[in-house]
Design goal:
With about 350 residues, the protein is an alpha/beta fold. It contains 16 helices and ten strands. About 40% of the residues are buried.
Length: about 350
């Protein structure tokens, strides 16, 4: 696209009437939404990959109860990601996952009605086919990159093949979570929800590939879960869903909750900022009460895992972690630093913070 930069007659805006130019911002907004979607999917897969590796290391160092061996061996393999839909979103997401997580080609598969159109991915070693039920039975994480109109039929195909431990990540914004729950007969569903402001600021780099855009410091910081930059904000209930999805991964492995809390602190609170060096006691630490209510906590024994959480309820209702996030600006700061660090980018630019942690968007 760079060679067309000075050729006005070949640019997208050429020939558009003056009265229609007011709608050009929708092109930038669409690109911004695509970049945000890919960024948050990459972050989620990085988290899942990190936890699965840590759980595997933990299990190698201890003996498992007999009743948990089969479940643990089935769920603690390397992260396997399936994508249903080979359109524009599916292709961009595939590139982002391959390059930025990174997910090995053999651990990434795509089911689409036109697998012959994905030769560039097949040459990389990615299996591309048209068999949604087979893909679902294989994957640990499943991305739905199809049109809302296609979703009911796809859900009917895959419903019986879905494992309890498979996390469905839906980009079908028009299908609400309760409807998805009915269509798929599972509660392990994540759905990011975005809101666009009227004062849209097109910072999304029109001529950059998605993977290149996510290595641009300005663009990447704008995708931070708490950032309103670029006129697009993410409903922070998504972040709560990510945490409880991770807890479910640990529960499927029969990991005691005390070890889970240690692992949460190790992974999510591993990136610190300048203030932490002067006052280490101010660094947050996750507690059992951050995730379960007081009634349930009284029945928790040290060797007991967390309960299995309904991710639909987590994203639609208040929960203990909602209160934890809203009441702790320091925790939000740590999570934002972690997010940027996962992409290899500093949170600050010229010693000035780019995002504000004072008031999380809901």
């Amino acid at each position: 696209m760079d060679i067309l930069e000075d050729l006005k007659s070949l640019q997208f805006e050429y020939g558009i009437s003056e009265e229609d130019r007011s709608w050009l911002y929708l092109r930038g907004r669409s690109r911004g939404l695509l970049i945000e979607a890919c960024a948050h999917a990459v972050f989620f897969c990085k988290i899942c990959h990190t936890f699965r590796e840590s759980i595997q290391e933990n299990q190698n160092s201890r003996s498992l109860p007999v009743e948990s061996v089969d479940l643990a061996s089935a769920d603690n393999e390397k992260l396997k990601v399936g994508i249903i839909g080979g359109g524009h979103l599916g292709k961009q997401l595939t590139c982002a996952l391959l390059q930025l997580v990174p997910i090995p080609a053999e651990n990434l598969r795509i089911s689409t009605r036109r697998p012959e159109a994905l030769t560039e991915f097949q040459k990389l070693g990615i299996q591309c086919f048209y068999h949604n039920a087979y893909l679902v039975g294989w994957a640990n994480v499943l991305f739905l990159c199809c049109l809302p109109s296609q979703l009911p039929n796809i859900c009917l195909e895959i419903q019986k093949s879905l494992k309890k431990t498979c996390i469905v990540y839906s980009f079908a914004a028009a299908i609400p979570l309760p409807r998805l729950k009915l269509l798929l007969n599972t509660t392990s569903i994540l759905r990011p929800k975005y809101q666009c402001a009227e004062d849209f600021d097109n910072i999304w780099g029109a001529n950059k590939e998605i993977t290149a855009a996510l290595q641009d410091a300005v663009i990447l910081r704008a995708t931070c879960p708490y950032s309103p930059a670029g006129g697009i904000t993410l409903n922070i209930k998504w972040l709560e869903g990510v945490f409880y999805a991770v807890l479910n991964i640990c529960t499927a492995s029969n990991m005691p909750y005390l070890q889970v809390l240690q692992l949460l602190n190790k992974v999510f609170l591993s990136v610190h900022y300048e203030d932490c060096k002067t006052d280490e006691t101010s660094c947050p630490k996750f507690q059992l009460t951050d995730f379960v209510n007081a009634v349930y906590m009284r029945n928790m024994f040290q060797q007991r895992p967390f309960p299995w959480f309904d991710l639909i309820d987590v994203q639609l209702k208040e929960n203990p972690f909602s209160q934890c996030l809203s009441s702790s600006p320091v925790l939000r700061d740590h999570l934002t630093h972690l997010y940027c660090d996962f992409f290899g980018i500093s949170l600050v630019n010229e010693d000035q913070p780019v995002v504000s942690m004072d008031s999380p968007s809901q």
